[in-house]
Specification:
- The complex is a heterodimer of chains A (113) and B (257).
- Chain A is an alpha+beta fold and 113 residues long.
- Chain A has a domain of 79 residues: 2-Layer Sandwich (hypothetical protein PF0899 fold), CATH 3.30.2320.50.
- Chain A is built from 2 helices and 6 strands, in the order H-E-H-E-E-E-E-E.
- In chain A, the strands form 2 sheets. Chain A has a 3-stranded mixed sheet with strand order 2-1-6, covered by helices on one side.
- In chain A, helix 1 packs across helix 2.
- Chain B has one domain: 3-Layer(aba) Sandwich (Rossmann fold), CATH 3.40.50.
- Chain B is 31% helix and 20% strand.
- In chain B, strands 6-5-7-4-8-9-10 form a 7-stranded parallel sheet, with helices on both faces. In chain B, strands 1-2 form a two-stranded antiparallel sheet.
- Chain B starts with 14 loop residues before the first strand and ends with a helix.
- In chain B, helix 1 packs parallel to helix 4.
- Classes of the chains: A alpha+beta (113), B alpha/beta (257).
- Chains A and B meet through helix 1, strand 1 and strand 6 of A and strand 3, helix 1 and helix 6 of B.
């Protein structure tokens, strides 16, 4: 359940940006979460309700945009979709050491007023 | 001017309902409105990592440790894989050559710290309460309580958990993941993020491998599949078998710091 720590950080960053923009309330939050980030979207949603309570982000809409993981195959010189950490190229079956996407745990945007 | 993208479009003259809200012109209507005047919501793009604060603190730790010429290990595994015994025996075997200091993380109790302290190892315990992992800030505060000028190798024993600590960089040089022969050969396949993130994988309790029916080839195959880049060691902290290769590796890496 490190999703609680992650979402507490999301609240901190969202509140900081609202204060900088002079907004009094946060109405929405958009996150980008890689499929290999290690964080579970359902657990993040669950944690969000708890950690945003009693803050200016309470009740804000949470959107989580999934990012499908992609590896780079140096032999085929092409990207391929990774469903897991085995990073095996589906064309040549070589194992790739380069994960290009999929570890994202980003706060994309904050809606406020 | 537009502050969103710097395109230079738009201006200060905000129009509501098709006419300028400059109060100097005359109005044919009063200023009462049939709707509430809550400010319109607007969006601020951040595009920042949620791990940014931890990652920055971890880099600060890394720089500080480097300046102190420390080799720093982040030891992770499930509960009961033998982290504490492995660390105690590593320290005992390095005695006279390299000085080991330890930071131990657990949800509660200082039992692990007490075991290490009895062995004469300088140790700081972090009790995380309900938090399932160590983060860079906790490590920085704990490290301040050790006399690091008397330490060559700093070992951080993370909370026994193969999930959450994977996302938290502590500023270590090497992430060392333990897999004990009692746990089953498929642990690397079940917890790939952690095994994938480690630079070193250690199979512990090899002295009882036969008794518990441990399939070595299968375990190594699984490890290589997930942690293809990792250096793999097989040892028993209890009997000392296989410890030499691990200790030589540590001494070599300490020399490179």
């Amino acid at each position: 359940m490190h999703e609680v720590s992650i979402m507490a950080e999301a609240v901190r960053m969202a509140v900081e940006s609202a204060q900088a923009a002079g907004a009094g309330r946060i109405t929405g939050l958009r996150l980008r979460v890689g499929t290999l980030s290690g964080a579970v979207p359902d657990a993040m949603r669950f944690a969000w309700d708890v950690v945003s309570r009693d803050t200016i982000a309470a009740g804000a809409r949470l959107e989580i945009e999934p990012v499908t993981a992609a590896g780079w195959c140096a032999t085929c010189r092409a990207e391929f979709e990774c469903a897991d950490f085995f990073n095996e190229c589906p064309r040549c079956h070589n194992v790739s050491g380069e994960l290009r996407r999929g570890r994202e745990l980003d706060i994309a945007s904050v809606e406020m007023n | 001017m537009c502050k969103e993208c710097g395109c230079g479009l738009g201006g200060g003259d905000v129009k509501v309902g098709g006419h300028s809200h400059d109060p100097s012109h005359s109005h044919s209507h009063g200023h009462e409105h049939g709707h509430s005047h809550a400010p319109a919501p607007f969006k601020v793009d951040l595009n920042r990592s949620l791990m940014e604060k931890n990652d920055r603190l971890a880099e600060r730790n890394r720089g500080f440790f480097k300046a102190k010429k420390l080799l720093v290990l982040n030891v992770v595994s499930s509960p009961g894989s033998g982290k504490t015994t492995f660390i105690r025996e590593t320290a005992a075997n390095l005695a006279g050559k390299l000085r080991v200091g330890v930071i131990v993380g657990d949800l509660a109790t200082d039992n692990d710290a007490a075991h290490l302290r009895e062995a004469g190892i300088p140790v700081v315990q972090i009790t995380t309460g309900t938090v399932c992992h160590l983060d860079a800030d906790m490590v920085s505060k704990a490290a301040a309580q050790l006399d690091l000028d008397k330490v060559d190798v700093l070992v951080i024993e993370n909370v026994g958990n193969l999930v959450c600590p994977a996302d938290y960089d502590l500023g270590e040089d090497l992430r060392v993941v333990l897999l004990s022969t009692t746990e089953g050969e498929d642990k690397p396949l079940k917890y790939p993020p952690m095994f994938h993130s480690a630079q070193v994988a250690v199979i512990t309790k090899c002295d009882i491998a036969t008794a518990v029916g441990f399939d070595r080839e299968q375990a190594l195959g699984n490890l290589r599949r997930v942690s293809h880049h990792a250096e793999i060691f097989e040892l028993s902290s209890k009997t000392g078998q296989g410890m030499k290769a691990w200790l030589d590796f540590l001494a070599k890496r300490r020399g490179e710091v």
